[in-house]
Structures are given as C-alpha cells and as structure tokens.
Write a structure and sequence with these properties.
32% strand; Ubiquitin-like (UB roll); 6 helices; 5-stranded mixed beta sheet; Aldehyde Oxidoreductase, domain 3; disordered C terminus; alpha+beta
Amino acid sequence: MQVRVLFFGILKDLAGQAADSLSLPEPATLRDVLDHYEARIPGLRRLSSSIAMSINQQYAAPESKLQPEDEVALLPPVSGGGGKTALEERAGHAPCVEIIHQKIDTSALLQRIQCPADGARVIFEGVVRDNSRGRRTLFLDYEAYEEMALKQMHGLVEQALSRFPIRAVLMVHRVGRLEIGEASVVIVVASPHRAAAFDAGRWLIDTLKRTVPIWKKEYFEDGAVWADGEPFPPELAKRESSHG
C-alpha cells in the first residue's frame, strides 16, 4: 500500500523533506512507518520516545492499522465550521478558532466577544521575547500542521465550554515569521465571573502548548534551532519500539 508521510519541525530538518510517499506491505501499522524512517534518518531514533503520530489528522497509537492513501504525520513535541453546531449555540456565536499569517488584532477580538452579560473578559497574549537560551533572539518562525491544529483547537474550545462556567472563547494562533514583541497566540475568555475566566484561560494555553501541532524555530545571530517542545501527554507520545 501507499501512504503519504508528513514531517514537521526538527523532524523535517532531519528528514531533509516535508513529505514523502511510502510503500508498505499490507497489513501495516504506524509502527512500521516509524521503524522505516528510524532505520534511514540519522538522529531520529534518539527522539523516538517523544514523538507523537497521527493518521488523517487524528492522533493515533503505534499499533494503529493503516489503509491505502492514509496521511501519516510524525510530530515532534509541540512549541511551547459549516452550519451552526451545539458548541456555537452554547457560546452564543461561532467561536473564533483560527490560524493566521498576519498580525493578530487583539483589540478586534475583544470587541467581537463582548456581551453585556459578562462580568469578566480575560486575555492571554503569547508574545515573542528578545532572548532565549542565554542568547539574543532576532525573530521566530512558527510552523503548523494547520488542518490538524484547527481540529485540536476546536476540540479545546469545546472542552473548555464544558469544563468551566464560561460563555465564549476566541483562540487565534499566528504562523510564519514573527518579530520581537509580536503576539504568536491570543486567547480571550468571556464569563460572568472572573475566576472561571482565569481558570479556563490558563487551562486552554497550557493544553494548547502540549497537544496542538504547532512548532517554533528560534533565530539568533549565530544560527537557528527548533525550540524544545513541551512533552506530549503520555497517552499521545510514542513509546520506544519493543524491538528497537
């Protein structure tokens, strides 16, 4: 069978390509894909225990079976709608979940979410700082597995609306080159009470940083490196092959 394999972040650098077409004998699993590339890509095996994998934009276990023409992604640790859905009804409007390539307008997002019933609107802005690893940062470059990232972000909003007594959430992440002081991610939570808004905002950004496939590359005067990602939750991270 033939499957399409995608590489992101540091794995793309190690593989020397963003995508590959791989032929596998049937039946095949995700573990067969990883074993194939571990044997051919120097440095991949040492990252093996921290890699997550997906099939058709859904996280999947190494034992998951593959079908012809599946889209498989190897994911290093991440960087630090149609008709009206039940989620949209609950929020009062379509929740804003976006990945964009231009500057994020936080003021415009705040205007979009405001409602007289709210007693609190909490804003989180993740901003590019001018230093990292003891060196001066020149700029950052964010990369995303956009289709999968949007699905994961929608899922986080849905979970937040179920877990916390809040009214609405807006979540926007930027990709591409970002200069010092620019916002990479903005989350706005609206709620009748401040405690729930703070709790939901903290949970959203912490979970986004661990589970949504977005990576950043840091550029310095003397080179560039992919940022050490937040570890995937244990249920998503790939475990070492028993025969590795």
